[in-house]
Write a structure and sequence with these properties.
Elements: E1 8-11, E2 14-17, E3 22-24, E4 32-34, E5 49-52, H1 54-63, E6 69-72, E7 78-81, E8 85-91, E9 99-105, E10 108-112, E11 134-136, H2 151-164, H3 179-189, H4 203-209
Parallel strand pairs: 3-4, 4-5, 5-6, 10-11
Antiparallel strand pairs: 1-2, 2-3, 7-8, 8-9, 9-10
The structure holds zinc ion.
Zinc ion binds next to loops.
Amino acid sequence: MAAPFSWLRPDPAGIYIAPADCWIDPARPVDTALITHGHADHARGGHGRTITTPATLAIMAVRYGTGAGVVPVEYGESLNLAGGVRVTFVPAGHVLGSAQILLEHAGEHVIVTGDYKRRPDPTCAPFVVTPCDLFITEATSGLPVFRHPPIEDEIARLLAVREANPGRCVLVGAYALGKAQRVIAELRRGGWTGPVWLHGAMERMCRLYE
Ligand SMILES: [Zn+2]
């Protein structure tokens, strides 16, 4: 009998799923790619076939192009790949369309999280806990030094600064995919009804979110 999980291989270019001859978030163009989400360190253009959620495909189309073959898979839907590998996309709570990838093969269940968060975010589907035998996790903010305060408190601070400086601008730096839209949504939830001026580089992605 094969060693547990021997059908998966870590590789500098991504995670390789041998029986299905496909990759997760590959760093170079491959025949078949499963993509967790639209950020540039996970999604690249030029693959023969790109399998991911419809929202991530839409984001990729705006940012990188997706190549010829696209296979949209809704959250919770499963797809049978070659070699008896079954793949399901599970919400990751990171950005619009972001997914954990559940792989099933030879009776083994593997979750590859991609980036994820457990905090509520009004701009994407919340993280779903899924039983598995192997959990391959990102840990971008995994060090204990990262203690993110509640977003309500941060937005309240932002609005207080705005209030205290009526003749001035408050400039917020936020990543163009995900963070910017979350800040806007939270500002609205926090009661800000005035205009939010955007750098032009963010406009297309905000339109897509709308
Ligand atoms: Zn990300």
